[in-house]
Amino acid sequence: MELLLIHQNHPGQFRDLTPALERRGHRVLGLGATPRAGVPRLHYDWQAPVLPAGLADPLLEANLRRAARVQERCLQLREQGYRPDAVIGHSGWGELLYLRDIWPEAVLIAYPELYATPLLLGYGFDADLGEPSHALRAQWRRGNLMGLAAVADADACVVPTRFARDTFPPHLRSRFQVLHEGIALPAPASGPISLRLEGGPTLTKGDPVITVASRNLEPLRGFRSVLRALPAVLAARQDARAVIVGGTDSGYGAPSSHPDGHKGELLALLGHQLPLDRVHFLPPLPHRELLALFHISAAHVHLTYPYALSWSVLEAMACGALVVGSDNPPLDEVIQHGHNGLLVPFNDPDRLAEVLLAVLADPPAFAAMAEAGRATVAARYEVNRAAEAFEALILSLRLLP
Fold it and tell me: How many whole angstroms separate alpha carbon 229 and alpha carbon 118?
């Protein structure tokens, strides 16, 4: 089949799915905003627009303009004779808004990801947050408009978790397929794996290393709870180290008032309690190095608000790391406590510290649990299985009258 995959930051969620579909014999065309070095794809012209003052919602206006740019590019493709059998696209930025009219015969599958609600950003979940303002609630309502338009037009909508589906209003959920886009399983280690920290030690499998990895070090991904737990762990285990990987932007949630972001804010509060020679903050790593870190990890901590399921937690499990996650959606769809990982309350640093010390005290006792985590990812989230499921969904929709 001819498949068109659209994402403003292509490949985005389709990074591993694209080559898997190609291995199944399909021709996949990617479309994203502006060229990216090393990423084979088409692009539509896009620069962040300079918008007039006084708009009710500048982001909504920007998304409408993005939709127009995608419309122009896809009309060019149609004029050149391109006729996709199916279009799959992330709908959060408006890119799918006009595509039904351009290729009415193509199967249109939207990836709306999430329906914005206060819970997603921690309201009613994170004890450190108060009530959202009415202005913020109104902003979320407007932010959902593009996703809702895609739900109305698409032949089907795909989301990676049941939790993501259930963020949408109940009367819309029958439109959704719960289908994770899949990850490529890391190749088995051919020998001992090590990772040298710049200016620090070389870490190897068997070292008491606690790992954390997130796109950004932010409350939404549990950064506060992790730093509050570490002083007790590192005081009790003088040989243990924590390796924390992530950027310092504000991330998905609200920014910090500290000039150095959430990391600076937390270190100002807790840095005096931490042995900073054994807490290693690293910027986002090249993918190969991140996988090496997961292979080495004795315990990988992944705490999150009820939000999108991070690939990093699946990749850590696939590398054989024992995941200690937060006992809430969407992680509780992946991790069964005591079977393929461990779950702790998001807002309980003392409990997190207790569990981490138990894991570091007796790693062999948790080896079978880590192996069960690896098997879970292979059985449910492996990308070739996902490609087969996407193919079956497209074919079933093509057969409908």
Answer: 26
Closest CA to 386 of 248, 195, 181, 206: 181
Contact call for residues 157 and 112 (beta carbons, < 8 A):
yes
| CA distances, 45 to each of 42, 68, 140, 254, 391 (Å) | 10, 10, 27, 30, 30
Contact 237, 279 (CB under 8 A): no
Looking at residue 401, its pLDDT comes to: 61
pLDDT per residue as tens digits for the range 333-368: 999 999 999 999 999 999 999 999 999 999 999 999
Mean pLDDT, rounded, of the chain: 94
Beta-ladder partners of 109: 88, 156
The H or E element containing residue 164 is: helix 162-166
- What are φ and ψ of residue 4, in 5° steps? -110, 120
**In the chain, what percentage of residues exceed pLDDT 90?**
86
Query: What own/partner pairs with CB < 8 Å and gap ≥ 24 does 192-199 have?
Result: 193/292, 193/295, 193/296, 194/292, 194/296, 195/289, 195/292, 195/293, 195/296, 197/243, 197/280, 197/282
Distance in angstroms (rounded) separating the CA atoms of residues 244 and 275: 14
Distance CA 143, CA 61 (A): 11
